[in-house]
Structure to design on (851 residues):
């Protein structure tokens, strides 16, 4: 929990700093938008976490998000290019497609013993191409579809504005279920065991292939849920939606304490990691320092939005560097302790 | 080395240890795990600076600040786990880090010249393979010789060998001894660390014994005997009860039978059976196919033919799950690789195969898990601060007990133990032996694979000797002697077929 606590403190500091520099940060419209963004990232980051904790990687998730959104737009858009089916058909079909993609990738990885990186990289490219074909290189508008209400509506209305948007509700539900599954169910224990030592898990009678396949299904499934949210939020789908989102999810997972070696990470960490990622994004727009220039005119200094990737990259690097330093200090201490134990009499060894 | 002291927070790992090595002699360094052998050799190799004491070479005090310092002074360490790059050829490995005479990274590698020097070195260590052979195609024994050649290429005068024969066959070991003797004649000082008493007695000119960070004895090779060394190592006469008495013999219920089982890659089918409460040993050289046979029985590599029965039921595990469901459990040879999830806790590891059965509706039952873990920790006397301790922080003996605990919580019918005491200290060994006998007495059939003949002979009711994938003989307890089993292992005697059950 050390990592989670550290990141949570960092998160609070960031929020406090931003609020201090620009009180609008916690204003209702920015707060609603930021929590919605955090939630949509969080939903698929949770899926990614299952894969990463089991020792795999899923690069296809951004394309799965795009594909689900595009499918819904194609099937259910009442406008031009859409087929105009009910959402009761569009959503299940889109989600089903996402789950099918996850199952297929999981089976390829576990049954044919292919490397997850390669399989999901191919999946990423292939699905992106499928989306592109469906939208025929253009965009599909969801204008007039009741789906838009999913992103814009919400619960706890204050002055006619929903304070908690539906994506936040979905994210909370997903996080609750994920907490149960990862931390309180047998399946979760197996996920950690496989990530910690695949062979020992196999020798303990765990159906490693099935559990591993399931992690890819979960990842793609949550990617699908996020895809529906994004479609509702953006209101029109192009082939560009979801590009590079897998990197955001991996970053959120790593910031939250997952190790890409597997076996480590918590749901709480993912939630915090996702929040940090989005608050950085938002903070780059919100951060401002008022100053008076040499001619005595009051001005406001803002961050250049072109720095976004520089800052995001630097934050991730800083987080893993700090974590690694702590890790190395700890392991040096453990080595010393072990050597010390080895030097003492065998009766005292621990 | 004079009066070397090394302390770590809270403990003295080395307490005024002095060690003298002459040119042209083999000094064996012995001691239990944790006696300080590795620490002492790390000080000599420059990895740890000593807190006190001096290292003298040719009577001149030297300061070793790094491994490079030590190397420059002609001290070469050969680790137990070999440090070779399998994807490179022999020449590249021997001169790794030493390719060019000028320390410029972009200097050309003078392949032809290096090949010639490699060929000369290979000749010196008696290895007849071309210098451009890929290391990954060599046997472990040959790799060991490459390490020696590498040390020689650095003009080493002091050679430290840590458990060099631990994964060699008998023939390879014999070759290695020949080389060691020859290097001794050439005037190298060799420090030889080994747990194998026979080797040390044959090879060493002198033996220094460490215990609890002190040098407790310095014996001339001729004067040393098995007993005197063990007594020095453990600080007491080995109790006669080291191996528990086996009075209760197995009954006649056959639990498990293998009929013509074809282990993938083995040359011949194998048949045997084991009774309730019997400890059936499997002896053989490395590569005799013991581990492979056990993995087939456990379902890791399913059999290509033949039939196994468990009780009266056909038993054909396609994976470990099937075997576990039937009550056939394996304590694997490599506990870190196959036995434990190191970052997980003692409790999580001990219940890993069981956790699905303890759960209700897929929900973990933490209370039951902890109870089971507590029970096993108490029963096996696992020394751990709490059951929530990560197993990575435990000593080898306690880790091995955790692997055992995984299965004891689940009522085994057949328990396969593959090298259950490898790399653990004498005290933990004795405890594990007692547990094995207690398990057999409770009616469990035990298949015990061990490379320590002492252990096989001390514990087993019957021993199957495997040789090159075939059964070389089946020996009943009454006829178990080191000489006879050893002869069967190497093919110098043939088994008595009348005992084949």
């Amino acid at each position: 929990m050390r990592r989670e606590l550290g990141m949570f403190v960092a998160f609070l500091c960031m929020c406090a700093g931003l609020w201090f520099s620009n009180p609008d940060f916690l204003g209702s419209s920015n707060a609603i938008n930021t929590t919605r963004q955090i939630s949509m990232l969080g939903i698929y980051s949770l899926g990614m976490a299952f894969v990463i904790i089991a020792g795999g990687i899923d690069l296809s998730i951004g394309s799965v998000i795009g594909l689900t959104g595009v499918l819904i737009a194609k099937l259910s858009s009442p406008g031009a290019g859409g087929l105009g089916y009910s959402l009761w058909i569009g959503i299940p079909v889109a989600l089903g497609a996402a789950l099918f993609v996850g199952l297929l990738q999981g089976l390829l990885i576990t049954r044919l013993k292919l490397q997850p990186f390669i399989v999901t990289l191919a999946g990423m490219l292939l699905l992106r191409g499928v989306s592109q074909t469906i939208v025929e290189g253009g965009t599909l508008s969801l204008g007039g579809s009741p789906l838009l209400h999913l992103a814009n509506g919400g619960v706890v209305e204050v002055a006619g504005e929903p304070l908690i948007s539906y994506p936040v509700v979905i994210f909370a539900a997903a996080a609750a279920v994920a907490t149960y599954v990862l931390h309180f169910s047998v399946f979760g224990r197996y996920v950690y065991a496989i990530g910690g030592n695949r062979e020992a898990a196999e020798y303990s009678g765990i159906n490693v292939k099935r559990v591993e396949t399931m992690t890819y299904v979960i990842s793609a499934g949550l990617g699908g849920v996020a895809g529906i949210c994004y479609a509702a939020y953006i209101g029109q789908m192009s082939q560009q939606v979801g590009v590079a989102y897998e990197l955001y999810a991996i970053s959120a997972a790593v910031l939250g304490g997952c190790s890409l070696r597997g076996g480590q990470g918590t749901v709480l960490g993912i939630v915090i990691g996702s929040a940090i990622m989005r608050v950085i994004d938002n903070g780059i727009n919100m951060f401002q320092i008022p100053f008076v220039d040499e001619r005595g005119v009051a001005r406001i200094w803002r961050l250049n939005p072109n720095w976004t990737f520089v800052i995001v990259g630097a934050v991730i690097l800083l987080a893993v560097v700090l974590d690694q330093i702590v890790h190395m200090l700890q392991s040096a201490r453990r080595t010393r302790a072990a050597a010390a134990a080895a030097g003492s009499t065998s009766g005292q060894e621990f | 080395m004079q009066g070397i002291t090394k302390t770590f927070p809270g403990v003295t790992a080395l307490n005024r240890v002095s060690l003298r090595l002459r040119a042209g002699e083999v000094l064996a360094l012995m001691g239990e795990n944790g006696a300080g052998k590795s620490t002492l050799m790390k000080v000599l190799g420059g990895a740890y600076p000593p807190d006190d004491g001096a290292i003298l070479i040719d009577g001149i005090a030297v300061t070793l600040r790094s491994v490079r310092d030590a190397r420059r002074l002609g001290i070469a360490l050969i680790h137990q786990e070999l440090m070779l790059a399998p994807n490179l050829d022999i020449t590249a490995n021997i001169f790794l880090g030493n390719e060019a005479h000028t320390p410029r990274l972009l200097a050309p590698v003078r392949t032809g010249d290096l090949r010639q020097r490699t060929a000369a070195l290979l000749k010196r260590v008696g290895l007849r393979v071309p210098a451009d052979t890929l290391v990954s195609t060599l046997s472990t024994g040959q790799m060991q010789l490459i390490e020696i050649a590498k040390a020689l290429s650095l003009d080493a005068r002091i050679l430290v060998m840590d458990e060099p024969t631990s994964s060699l066959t008998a023939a390879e070991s014999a070759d290695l001894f020949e080389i060691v003797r020859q290097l001794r004649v050439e005037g190298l000082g060799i420090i030889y660390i080994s747990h194998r008493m026979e080797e040390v007695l044959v090879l060493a000119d002198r033996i220094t014994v460490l215990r609890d960070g002190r040098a407790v004895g310095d014996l001339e090779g001729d004067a040393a005997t098995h007993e005197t060394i063990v007594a020095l190592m453990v600080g007491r006469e080995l109790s006669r009860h080291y191996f528990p008495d086996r009075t209760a013999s197995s009954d006649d219920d056959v639990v498990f039978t293998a009929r013509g089982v074809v282990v993938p890659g083995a040359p011949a089918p194998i048949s045997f059976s084991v009774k309730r409460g019997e400890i059936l040993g499997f002896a053989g050289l490395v590569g005799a196919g013991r581990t492979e046979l056990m993995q087939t029985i456990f379902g890791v590599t399913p059999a290509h033919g033949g039939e196994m029965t468990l009780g009266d039921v056909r038993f054909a595990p396609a994976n470990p799950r099937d075997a576990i469901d039937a009550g056939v459990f394996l304590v694997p040879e490599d506990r870190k690789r196959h036995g434990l999830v190191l970052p997980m806790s003692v409790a999580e590891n001990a219940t890993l195969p069981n956790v699905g059965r303890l759960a209700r509706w897929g929900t973990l039952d933490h209370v039951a898990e902890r109870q089971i873990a507590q029970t096993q920790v108490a029963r096996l006397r696992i020394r751990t601060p709490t059951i929530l301790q990560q197993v990575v922080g435990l000593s080898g003996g306690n880790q091995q007990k955790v692997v055992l605990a995984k299965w004891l919580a689940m009522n085994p019918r057949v328990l396969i133990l593959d090298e259950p005491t490898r790399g653990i200290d004498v005290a933990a060994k004795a405890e594990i032996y007692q547990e094995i006998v207690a398990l057999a007495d409770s009616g469990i059939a035990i298949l015990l694979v061990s490379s320590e003949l002492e252990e096989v002979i001390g514990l087993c009711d019957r021993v199957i000797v495997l040789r090159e994938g075939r059964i070389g003989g089946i020996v009943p307890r009454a006829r178990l002697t080191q000489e006879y089993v050893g002869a069967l292992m190497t093919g110098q005697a043939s088994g008595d077929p009348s005992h084949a059950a």
In short: Chain B has 18 helices and 20 strands. Chain B touches chain A through 55 residues (CB under 8 Å). The first strand of chain B starts at residue 2 and ends at 8.
